[in-house]
């Protein structure tokens, strides 16, 4: 098994207390190659990155990412899980409104994030199965 991916882009950024994008902007799936591999190897993910800086002083988001270090081969376990995590910041979930929201933030109404449609799947990375 190999992996393939598709992506989508941010069309409208959330504002004030709107919801951030649900899920990642990239999605991965397993795929098959046309010939057999000589060895079985499980998928291996790289380490998570440090969180990015918060995108706004008031009601922002930050992300952490990781890459697929090596795809599985033969009967190895395929990659499972996301390669990007997004979380709220300023305030984080369960925190009170930061001063930046109370003092200088102006309520422009709630606007949720809107993403584009998913792209087509990429080619499979597997060269053998």
Question: What does this 3D model show about the protein?
Answer:
- This protein is mostly beta strands and 129 residues long.
- The strands form four sheets. A two-stranded antiparallel sheet has the order 1-3.
- The mean pLDDT is 78.
- The radius of gyration is 19 Å and the shape is elongated.
- It is built from one helix and eight strands; from the N terminus they run βββββββαβ.
- Helices cover 4% and strands 26% of the residues.
In short:
The protein has about 130 residues and is mainly β. The protein is about 5% helix and about 25% strand. It starts with a strand and ends in a 14-residue tail after the last strand.
Feature tags:
129 residues, elongated, mainly beta, 26% strand, two-stranded antiparallel sheet
Task: Produce the secondary structure layout.
Layout: E1 2-7, E2 10-12, E3 26-31, E4 44-45, E5 60-65, E6 68-70, E7 84-89, H1 99-103, E8 114-115
Antiparallel strand pairs: 1-3, 2-8, 4-6, 5-7
Helical percentage: under 10%
Count of strand segments: 8
Low-pLDDT residue intervals, each spanning 5 or more residues: none
Oligomer: single chain
**Rg from Cα:** 19 Å
The computed structural class is mainly beta
Our count of helices gives: 1
How do the strands line up in the largest sheet? Answer: 1-3
Gap between N and C termini:
5 Å
Mean pLDDT: 78
Percent of sequence in beta strands = 25-35%
Instruction: Let me know the largest β-sheet.
Output: 2 strands, antiparallel
